[in-house]
Amino acid sequence: MSGLLLENKNAVIFGGGGAIGGAVARVFARKGARVFIAGRTRAKLDAVARDITAAGGEVEVAQVDVFDPEAVAEHADAVATRAGSIDVALNAVSVMHDQGTLLADLTLEEFMRPIDGFLRTLFVTTKAVARHMGGERPGVILNLSEPGAKLAAAGILGHGVSAAGKEAFSRLLAAELAPSNVRVIDLRPHAVADAPAAGSYTGRLFEPAAAAAGQSVQEFLDDGGMVQGTLLKRLPTLSEIAETAAFLASDRAGPMTGTVVNLSGGALVD
Fold this sequence. Notes:
globular
């Protein structure tokens, strides 16, 4: 294991049973991290853990309700006690929400669902891990947002506001935690090319639009306007997101904090 990118790092991944969370957990473990995956669906977490164990990695699984501050705090305390530190944390929690409904037909509940859901879990998980990070061991907090944070597009009011909120949260948190030797970075992928095949909630999210176009969700992602709206004419893959996350979590990215890493394939040009 000597010389691996994340050797001796203890990494907590919330939403570790999901498509992105699982992909990142597998890569982190392969690169030497001891991985702690947490989420609400035990079967999905166990599937990721089996892959990591089969590849010779270290992983521990915890079924945790990320909307429960006490449960998340207890989990973080237990990880820090057992591992000695928390060096890296990723919030990859997904919240099902509406995309495509215009203001005239959008309910307040539908508008608020992603804003409250995503930002609530971000606050809960970050507060739980941050107190166990930094000092002599550099800490890294990674968050996920979406191009909706910057796009001027119809039908994504709640989604776009929540994405912008996540990026603002990360930027402001970076300023607060920098004196404690903790970096905070936001990753902004687009819709992920192979996420539906990996069981992501992307399938349910884009199913109405795909059905209206007479396509499967995979066809909608591959052939629809999302791809054509990127400079590279392709969407990011789970592997690319996970490998980028591993670099950002490593000491090689030591000068980086308070920023957004754009993985949109050029859908947005910063």
